[in-house]
Design a protein that fits this description.
disordered N terminus, three-stranded antiparallel β-sheet, 142 residues
């Protein structure tokens, strides 16, 4: 299995970066965009609403490792299966629980050996492109 990253991921990150650059002056000034479409899409927050930072809770985003594509495997194992080479699966899980493998990290150039641990720090971290706390304070609270 050859490790590759999809063009869609790179394209999505590029679009997000461009959107962030375009929205930065608006976010810094605190002013809302003045175009009619932007006015109808802009979230409204009542003055008495709690600040997004004070009400943030990770649990409000749902289960940490859900089976969002309904293939029988949770998202963490889907990503490990996709990105690792020489993958070993737990028997009897229909190749849904990754026990070990090797990551050739395209960002750092490092090779990382992965062996599942029952709890605590895992050698291969899978995280959101945008941290959930940032998403919360950027509008998810609404």
């Amino acid at each position: 299995m050859k490790l590759t990253r999809t063009t869609g991921t790179v394209f999505g990150i590029s679009i997000a970066a461009i959107a962030a650059l375009l929205l930065t002056p608006t976010l810094i000034s605190g002013e809302r965009p003045t175009t009619p479409a932007a006015q109808t899409m802009a979230p409204t927050v009542s003055p008495e609403a709690p600040s997004p930072a004070s009400s943030y809770s990770r649990d409000l985003f749902g289960p940490r490792w859900a089976d969002v594509d309904r293939n029988g495997c949770d998202t963490r194992n889907d990503v490990l299966k996709r990105d690792l080479v020489d993958v070993v699966f737990k028997a009897g899980t229909h190749d849904c629980v990754v026990l070990s493998g090797t990551l050739h990290d395209p960002l750092t150039g490092e090779t990382v050996s992965f062996t599942r641990k029952s709890s605590g720090y895992q050698p291969v971290q899978i995280d959101h492109i945008v941290p959930l706390a940032v998403a919360w304070s950027s509008g998810a609270a609404s």
